[in-house]
Structure formats: structure tokens, C-alpha cells
Write a structure and sequence with these properties.
Layout: E1 6-10, H1 14-25, E2 29-33, H2 37-44, H3 55-65, E3 68-71, H4 74-80, E4 83-86, H5 102-111, E5 119-123, H6 131-142, E6 149-153, H7 163-168, E7 173-176, H8 180-189, H9 191-195, E8 200-203, H10 205-236, H11 240-248, H12 269-282, H13 290-313, E9 322-326, H14 341-351, E10 355-359, H15 364-370, E11 375-376, H16 380-384, E12 389-392, H17 397-400, H18 404-408, E13 415-418, H19 425-430, E14 434-437
Parallel strand pairs: 1-2, 1-4, 2-3, 4-5, 5-6, 7-8, 9-10, 9-12, 10-11, 12-13, 13-14
The chain binds uridine-5'-diphosphate-xylopyranose.
Amino acid sequence: EADRMRVSVIGTGYLGATTAACLAEMGFEVLGLDVDEAKIEMLRSGRVPFFEPGLDELLGKSLKSGRLNFTTSFSEVAEFADLHLICVGTPQRDESGAADLRYVNAAVEQLAPHLNRPAVVVGRSTVPVGTAATMASRLAALAPVGEEAELGWSPEFLREGFGVEDTLRPNRIVIGTDSPRVEKAVRALWQQQVDEGVPFLVTDLQTAELVKVSANAFLATKISFINAMAEVSEVAGADVIQLAEALSYDDRIGGKFLGPGLGFGGGCLPKDIRAFMARADELGVEPALSFLREVDAINQRRRARTIDLARQLIGGSFAGRTVTVLGAAFKPNSDDIRDSPALDVASTIASLGAQVTVYDPVALERARAEHPQLNYADSMLEAARGADVVLLLTEWTEFREANPDELAAVVAQKRIVDGRNALDPTFWRASGWTYRALGRQ
Ligand code: UDX
């Protein structure tokens, strides 16, 4: 009976907490595990440790139903579930860009010794191709049941800010395995979605691992492609917004992820393309992914260009100037500031001698903790007080809908750099603003 299948979710970060709550919502009995006691306490009391629309509600509902519980004990999850999902993080290790697999290793090594009956372990984390095969043998070697502890890999594709939606209605399920038992367990997990027509693909371990990193590499490439066109447009006298629109009607190209601006950041795309390049190096196929170095470089250049535009607007130097930065999160609908382009730009401008004040609707607390050298304000208008230039760097709706006249009343100079092409230039210029954007005249 699929409804009664018991599932453990190991790692309750962004991916794990969202997965656990969604599976409970789908009717499964779920036990979430994390080694971080404080996080587990928070989740038990119904509080989500990060900002994710809709998750608070789902967590509360699942806890109340009794279908979702949390623990810090590996023996407890081994006792409880026959299917274990590994949802721990794989951050960037160091300058090499390679993925840090210590949490994935630890999850397998700590779970395995408790597996006294046949069990299926499925990795969902993003890992370098080849990791899963290594993990599968380690699992079998460490588990008391030996080969009856089987491991498959099933990457997730969820976007922050849409985690619940992307988990409940994924656009595909991929499972890498050659074991009928693993395939059966994963199929049972997503039976409702498969019945609704969600494609279910069974591949080998390596292909499943590659699907995830190549999807992210493609998305990053698409963003950098349009940002490269923005660079050309700037010097050629063209308009990248019109260009992108015209391209988007070719359905082989499509309009999604073709938004020019400050480029990509966050906990996934930047680190995933770097880890992918590092892995290609190890595999001896470095040239196959050398284009990703350009993708990364184009992305970084957009940050430099944004700073240049602001500097030009205020007459060549940031020293002693007052600068307002709207946005701290790496994208709207998230409080994630990992590799945030907005905070990177803000920090560089501060290091060039300006007083920088940042406002963000949800990410202020995190930003304050990590970038104490910046000033913070609790509202857009307060942040803009006395500004020589305003930079819009994360396209929250609040900023998209900002009233140029209200803002004009508090700034020192009506100058704005729209780093996300989020505003209507005609509208802002009509209220007397000097408006500059990436990829436009
Ligand atoms: C991404 C993938 O979309 C997801 O499938 C994967 O599982 C994890 O990585 P996420 O990092 O949450 O998800 O953010 P996403 O919405 O994909 O945006 C990534 C970055 O690209 C953001 O910084 C965003 O501002 C930027 N972006 C996106 C653009 O600059 N232009 C665009 O057109 C689209």
C-alpha cells in the first residue's frame, strides 16, 4: 500500500525539509533526520529555518497529521523506513571548484551500519558523476545486510521559491539504477505524479547524476548567452530586451532563462558549473566543458559592468558617496544570499569608499550577519534617503512596483541603475530620473 510506505529523509536543509513536508502531504509516513539538533528542534515546533513560500503551512499540516516526524538518530531512521532519501548539501570545496562530498559520505557511512534488513537508499543531492557508484559499494560494504542495501540516484530539480510546487508537480522523475527493487520503490514514491503524466525515466547511475549537472549547465549557459548579447548590445547601440523578446518567439529557443541583467548566483548554478568543470578535468575531458569557463566569466563581468554604470552616473568615483542597494537575496522569493550578485556588488562598492545601504524584504538578517561592513535599512524609502545613486539588484515585486516620485522625494540625486531590467525606463525617465540598465541604451 503506497500510502503507508515509510520514508526517511536524511538532511533537512532546503531540499530535505521541502521534500519531507511534501511527501507527508502526499500521504507517506516520513521521518526527517539532521545532525543539527537546533534545526530539528525548530522543525519539530513547526518553524521552517529558511524562507520558502508555502512551506510553513505544509510543515504545520504534516506535523499535525502525525505523518511527519523528525529525529537526529540514524538507528531510528533505519528502524523506521525501508526507503531512505539522501538530501544533504554538496557545497563548493575550495578554489578548485570541486564538490565537497563530506556530507554525502557521512550520511551513507552513518546510516549503513544500522541497516539490518533489506533497504533502498536513494541519493537526491547534486554530485559529481561517478559518486553514486562509489557510494553504492560503500553502502553494501558497511551494511549488515550487505548487497541487500541498494543505492540509486534520483536528482531533484527544484527551484528555491518554488520548492513545494516543483516537488509536488515535478516536470520529470529520473532514477539511476539497475535494480528492479530500487526502481519499484522510487516509482511507488511518485505514483500519483506518474499517473498524472509526469515522465518517469530509468537510467544508469552515471546518466542520472549527469542529468542534474547538465541541466544546470544548460540554464547557466542560457543566462550567460543573453548577457553576452547584452554586452554586445551596449556597445553596438542595440536593445537586449527587444532582442530577447524577438528570440523568444522561436520555440526552439524559448523565452525562459533569457532574462538579461546581473546574472546568476545562489547555492546551485555557480557551484554546480564549477564542480562540473572540475570533474571533467579529473575525467580527462576538460575541453568538453571549457565553454563553462566563459559562461562563468560572462556572469562575473555583469557584476563589474553594473558597478561601472553606477560609477559613471556619479561622476567617476565612489569615494564619500551615498549608495542605495535594493536587494540582497540572490533572487526574489528567497532569503538565500549564497553567492548573491547583489551583495557582491554592494560589498565591492563599499570597498571603493562609498557608504552603502542595503534593503531587502526578507534577506536582511542573513545579509547583516555575513556582511557587517554594509549598512542596512528596514524599508526601501529609508534605504534610499540621501542616495547619490540607487541600484536595483534583486527584482522583488516591491521594487518593480516602486513609485518613482516617492523615491525621488528622499534621494539626493535621481539616478538609478536597473541591474535586473525590472523597471520601465520611459516611466522612470518621465519622473525625472537618470535611468541606466544593462544591455540597453
Ligand atoms: C536552479 C535551477 O533552476 C534548479 O532546477 C536547480 O535544482 C537548482 O538551481 P535556483 O538556484 O533556485 O534553481 O534558482 P533559479 O530560479 O534557477 O535562478 C538562478 C539564478 O539565475 C538567479 O540568480 C536568477 O536571478 C538568475 N536568472 C534566472 C537570470 O539572471 N536570468 C534569467 O532569465 C533567469
